[in-house]
């Protein structure tokens, strides 16, 4: 049972368009706050897109996701779960990046998440581009590699661009496997599609035992069947969930830097997360929401709704 301090502000008490926005209207708990040690799941902003290879903008994602998440209410419409009554959740604020130094930013993020793990806080993060996931994993998975459920239109298993060593949002999971942060045989990547430079990412996946479910297979088999396989692959050991908003079709979620046509609709986008129920998700993120390329804000509203779905899965795994 959650502490009363950690209950979000209800729209029956203060209109949702009023007040200072926090993730899902939860209390803002800063480092050193007297209630920090009581937090079980911390919602964190990662406002950085220095790993973007084309259209920038996800650095603005956490702020808009916070704003739109004020529309989230207390109870899941299907399961009836009331996550804020079941676990102590809080908005831990943003981890400040160094906007002109990528390696320093990755180090800052890694230290922050290692600190959260030491305090027993499970993170649910809002990016930022997908490279933000790598320092999160460095912070929470150094001692034991995690499984991974990854929703995306891209594998993010590519080698470094231009033959160099600079990391981008195109290779966080390749590095995570090479660094021993993820168990490749407990990884599944769902929704993969779009034109390709070459097959280097698919070759890496095949060589390491990573399961890739293309969008064609996804639609041929259907959500329940694909996600049953995902649960089997990941198993009962601790795992991470990473959700790139470009998994969703750009007709539904245009606010992202590298959109790919032919993806799931909004219902399917939420359904895949619900089908992760029972997995031991110890950390998760929603990345690549780019407000500058979606003036309607619809992408952020879907992103905030997905974060609530992810939070429910994490709460059930406590």
Question: How are the secondary structure elements laid out?
Answer:
Layout: E1 41-46, H1 61-68, H2 83-86, E2 89-94, H3 102-118, E3 122-127, H4 133-140, E4 146-151, H5 172-178, E5 182-192, H6 200-208, E6 211-214, H7 215-221, H8 223-234, E7 239-244, H9 266-274, E8 281-287, H10 298-316
Helix pairs in contact: 1-10, 3-4, 4-5, 7-8, 9-10
Please characterize this protein's 3D structure.
With 318 residues, this protein is an alpha/beta fold. It has a single domain (23-316), classed as Ureohydrolase domain (Arginase, Chain A, 3-Layer(aba) Sandwich), CATH 3.40.800. It has 10 helices and 8 strands. Strands 2-1-3-8-7-4-5-6 form an 8-stranded parallel β-sheet, sandwiched between helices. Strand 4, helix 5 and strand 5 form a beta-alpha-beta unit.
Structural key phrases:
globular; 16% strand; alpha/beta; eight-stranded parallel β-sheet; single chain; 318 residues; 8 strands
Q: Which topology does CATH recognise?
A: Arginase, Chain A
Say which CATH homologous superfamily is assigned: Ureohydrolase domain
The backbone outline, from C-alpha atoms, is globular
Strand proportion: 15-25%
Share of residues in helices: 25-40%
Query: Which CATH C-level class is it?
Result: Alpha Beta
Number of helices: 10
**What is the number of beta strands?**
8
* Rg, alpha carbons: 18 Å
User: Distance between termini?
Assistant: 12 Å
User: How many domains?
Assistant: 1
Q: What is the H/E order?
A: EHHEHEHEHEHEHHEHEH
Mean pLDDT over the full residue set: 96
Instruction: Based on the coordinates given, report the CATH architecture.
Output: 3-Layer(aba) Sandwich
Q: Mind summarizing the main beta sheet? A: 8 strands, parallel
Low-confidence parts:
none
Could you say which structural class the secondary elements and strand pairing correspond to?
A: alpha/beta
Read across the widest sheet, the strand sequence of neighbours is 2-1-3-8-7-4-5-6
